[in-house]
Amino acid sequence: MASPALDGSIGRRPGDALATVHPAVHDVRMGLTIGDLFRRNSASAPSSVAASLGDVELTYREIDLAANRMVRALREVGIAVGDRVMWWGETTLDAVPLFAALAKLGAVFAPLNARYGPDEAVDVAQLARSKLLVADPPHIEAAMAVAQRVGALPVALLDDAG
What we know:
Distance between the termini: 46 Å
Strand content: 15-25%
CATH architecture: 3-Layer(aba) Sandwich
Number of strands: 6
Low-confidence stretches: 1-28
Number of domains: 1
Mean pLDDT: 82
Shape: globular
């Protein structure tokens, strides 16, 4: 029996016009990804503001260059297409290049609520089956404890240097 989430039949009755989705639809790849957007805008409008938080701004070029450095580091630790990488940190622009790097790799950015305690973080980490947990400095000690409890979960520190 096909999963309702995959065959498009959630909330539909047989015979409805949209009762099923042809399986080939799931194989369609988009021509433009988020990673592509950062690359293209970095080339066409490098000094344009791509993200801001309060008085802090990041241009497309700054994000793209930092993301490229992160792509190399993520590849070195084995992150590839489809891998989930959890981010545990405060609301900051420091996470934007990480998001862009994961998009470029085709990996999944899985944010973890910064207000979670270690017990809640363990539950989410186990459910998400992440390949890497990236944390900001305020969360790094708790991230190490979570990784130890989850087992086989590497931890990386993301500081303001990227």
